[in-house]
Amino acid sequence: MLGYANWYSEKFTREILFFIPFMQVLLIGPVIYFYTKSLLNINFKLSRTDYFHFIPALLYGIYSLVIFVTDKLILDDYYFYADGRDKDLANWYQATGLMSMAFYLILSLRYYFDYKKLVFDKVSYADTLLFKWIRNFMIAFLFILVLRVLFFILNPDWGEFGSQFWHYIAFSFVFYYIAITGYSNIIKQTTLSSEKLKVVNVFDDENLVSKSETRKNTPEVDVKIWKDKLSNLMIVKRLFENPRLTLSDVANELDTTTKIVSSVVNSGFNMNFNDFVNHYRIEAVKEKLEKGEQNTSTLLGIALDCGFNSKATFNRAFKKSTSLSPKGYLEKLTKE
Questions:
Q1: SS3 annotation, the chain
Q2: Which residue, 156, 167, 137, 160, is CA-closest to 86?
Q3: How far apart are alpha carbons 107 and 101 in whole angstroms?
Q4: Which of 45, 78, 90, 251 matches a 20 to 30 Å C-alpha distance to 214?
């Protein structure tokens, strides 16, 4: 935005904009991608091969350095900048950056949706671990890139700096969004830490063995027998009342592996682990309502007693299971 502050009109400030690569569009995509991976996978560390993703940004940095050395230190005259146009705004660079950001944002979204599936398969409090803010940010960023392509096609003067004003305004809104939602996420994570929710790395199994090896190493199980064992465990020991229940907790109770429990839940009950546990929680809530416990306690109090950890999660799970809101179900129960 410094260009709109009239910096291109003065020689000193114009040269600052010319020779310092403020717009590292080839760096944004890899940073977002690896930040997403580090946020969702607590054991993630950059490997040697990961650094290759930063080579395009490094090459552009070297290119900018060569331009500076040539124009300022060797020739002391504009050679590369003879046309008076900022290299950061060159069409080839902006187009390459656009493709890079789109590519890495799509990779990030794919990684997020893999994470979402895994977290629902491994914990009973998945809603609190979804990092929806980063998903929304990536979708908003992709939307801006799509708009940019559209305006690039419709606007014949795209190469002119002034015609890109709308894009920088939209970009600033995205960064405001990142700042606000990122800060709120820190507060949320602090709250979760105070509740001592277990930190589960849902990518553990995938990091240890490939999917083909996982299928090969998973023993054949009698789904019917394990379904009965699992149902009895949930009903007798009422494990669902634990708001921090994980797949590994259930596996330990049954003295088996998480792969077997996950397989039984998925193929035997046609549910993921989160929905499976919530099913028992909802049935327990319905049982309490039929006994009239709502007369001595609130709906939220009953939900918390049955293992839900928030009103929003309870309302969502209840409506998904019964097609009614908790209040709507209670009203229907009263009429009967």
A1: CHHHHCHHHCHHHHHHHHHCCCCCHHHHHHHHHHHHHHHHCCCCCCCCHHHHHHHHHHHHHHHHHHHHHHHHHHCCCCCCCCCCCCHHHCHHHHHHHHHHHHHHHHHHHHHHHHHHHHHHHHECCHHHHCCHHHHHHHHHHHHHHHHHHHHHHHCCCCCCHHHHHHHHHHHHHHHHHHHHHHHHHHHHHHHHHHCCCCCCCCCHHHHHCCHHHHHHHCCCCCHHHHHHHHHHHHHHCCHHHCCCCEHHHHHHHHCCCHHHHHHHHHHHCCCCHHHHHHHHHHHHHHHHHHCCHHHCCCHHHHHHHCCCCCHHHHHHHHHHHHCCCHHHHHHHHHHC
A2: 160
A3: 10
A4: 45
On the CB side of 62, CA atoms within 13 Å amount to: 6
User: How far apart (Å, rounded) are the C-alpha atoms in residues 17 and 2?
Assistant: 8
Look at residue 216 in the predicted model and tell me its pLDDT: 42
Residue with tokens 């290119």: 63
**Cβ(317)–Cβ(282) below 8 Å:** yes
Intra-chain end-to-end CA distance of the chain, in Å: 65
Tokens standing for 333?
Answer: 């129960």
Which candidate, 210, 143, 147, places its Cα nearest to that of 174? 143
**What number of residues does the chain have?**
336
Distance CA 174, CA 150 (A): 18
Q: What is the pTM of this model?
A: 0.80
- Provide the sign of the torsion angle of the four alpha carbons 167, 172, 178, 184, taken in this order: negative
138 to each of 37, 121, 156, 269, how far by Cα in Å? 13, 24, 28, 33
Give 237-247 pLDDT, tens digit per residue: 999 999 999 99
Q: Which two tokens stand for residue 198?
A: 């277990």
